[in-house]
């Protein structure tokens, strides 16, 4: 009592809470800290969830396999990754048993998968239908249910932080403070380079969490609108409209306008129709916004420094991964250009992509992403050295490089006798009609390219699955080619054990025959390789714009290839791919029951491979085809999914 009486506080009479003045500059930064704790905790949680994935990827050698392109004077000196039986990436042993617990785990995973994959279809309007391309039946909302939940969660956290305990009508600073606190997370989600720390699940690459970058950016805009709107409301209420002209307000309005420009330039129609405009506007306006906001309030600076550091890190890592290489452009048909970059030996995984800049002509100012369709050459695969990309003509830049490749008057090949002879032969053929200038016999056009990457790629481990269904639409075939290479790669790295997929079904929806013909040699080559590894590889080709009469399957393709004049029902494809699995596993389950609950793992080892079971579904192409595949899996019954041993999914859209 005495001590309290003697304390210095006794000189102050406590002010009742209702009469205390809200000290924005003390209280609001605390909410910035709370907001930062919320999103960093979500990151930390996702890191914890990812630990099993990281360990598995490390054990199967994938974690560091696709970090930077490497080249060597002696390609055969590169050690082929070999996986011993003990290091083999096995499916969780519990899941290969017929026990109740294993089926329970599969069931829980299947339920989570259904919720996370399910995507809402758009209302059936003509305009939207026009957006889906000819591979798909209908348009879908771009975000799946799980992505919507994540976005809403983020928005809820932001709104809670600027509303709780804030007297917005008297002091509108809180949304301004929370807007600043959002900057680091927005920049973090925009980075392309692999981070030393995983962002969300490390199985994701920038193109997978890019949607969050967009939505966090929009949430920032909403927060800034509330901040500005509430201040203007106060000025009007207090009859202080001259405050709008004050230096601080003018800088705030400038920062807001620049942010608005970023939002407008990033809208989907702008991104799709004028990608370069979107990109240039994005960078310019954002830098302008940072300058304006740092003059608007000194409280912004502590939030700008981490953003600059993160962006500098991204640029630095990208610079380390840049390579300038010789490349050959080959026009394989009227709309497809093959880009062969021979001087690369390792450091990528098929299905990853690189940003390509062709250092010739006006295309030099743009870099575009293309998927790597082949695995690094090994003594088994005997595939050519280097990286092979295919670019479908989609707009100006892809058209430019196609024309460059076709420009036979300026064909430049190497100086050696063989290539001079090749050029001579080709130019003699040039006398023939125009259509002979395309095709793989074309000697190609030598250019220099700058490549940045590799990025992204397939993140499910195919050695864990017995069957694989690959669904591709249009130029999405490049990802499918890479995925076939990956199936064969996991099979060869574990060639001394029964592991990896035994059945791979490809469904490719394509507009015209010419692309099928152009890629037939590659499809045949992969089929022959698969046969050597006892993998059954089948091609089902669907023409979305079939000519009448329907042409024959190109003679070069395997006999099992089927050509159909319609778009497939993807749910039907998934069910068909499940059938053999379900019946095999049902037989195994029955025999396990007969043998008094004998472990199924031994049984399935003899029938279907020791390392995995279940079905992996991979879809790539226009958004519609990927969404249809997601929904086909989400709509499967739990029983089907448990019986087949689980389904893995990877979807890739060639649009950002
Ligand atoms: C991860 C990824 C992998 C891809 N892999 C392949 C492939 O293997 N083969 C293939 O033919 N196509 C692939 N694409 C698509 C290819 O990048 C575009 O077709 C190409 O960039 C079009 O450029 P353009 O100037 O000719 O056409 P534009 O008319 O400028 O663009 C056509 C479409 O491509 C998008 N686009 C344009 N530039 C870029 C860019 N720099 N980054 C992302 N999207 C862009 C536009 O938004 C638009 O939707 C891939 C795209 C992505 C995102």
UniProtKB/TrEMBL annotation:
Its EC number is 1.16.1.9. GO terms for molecular function: ferric-chelate reductase (NADPH) activity. Keywords: Cell membrane, Electron transport, Glycoprotein, Ion transport, Membrane, Oxidoreductase, Transmembrane, Transmembrane helix, Transport. It is found in: Cell membrane. It is an enzyme of class 1 (oxidoreductase). It is a multi-pass membrane protein. GO terms for cellular component: plasma membrane. Its main location: membrane. The chain crosses the membrane at residues 37-55, 140-165, 177-195, 253-270, 277-297. It catalyses: 2 a Fe(II)-siderophore + NADP(+) + H(+) = 2 a Fe(III)-siderophore + NADPH. InterPro entries: Cyt_b245_heavy_chain, FAD-bd_8, FAD-bd_FR_type, Fe3_Rdtase_TM_dom, Fe_red_NAD-bd_6, Ferric/Cupric_Reductase, FNR_nucleotide-bd, Riboflavin_synthase-like_b-brl. CDD domains: NOX_Duox_like_FAD_NADP (cd06186). GO terms for biological process: copper ion import; intracellular iron ion homeostasis; iron ion transport. Residues 317-461 form the FAD-binding FR-type domain. It comes from the Eukaryota. Belongs to the ferric reductase (FRE) family. PANTHER family: FERRIC REDUCTASE TRANSMEMBRANE COMPONENT 3-RELATED (PTHR32361:SF9), FERRIC/CUPRIC REDUCTASE TRANSMEMBRANE COMPONENT (PTHR32361). This is ferric-chelate reductase (NADPH). The lineage of its organism: Eukaryota, Fungi, Dikarya, Basidiomycota, Agaricomycotina.
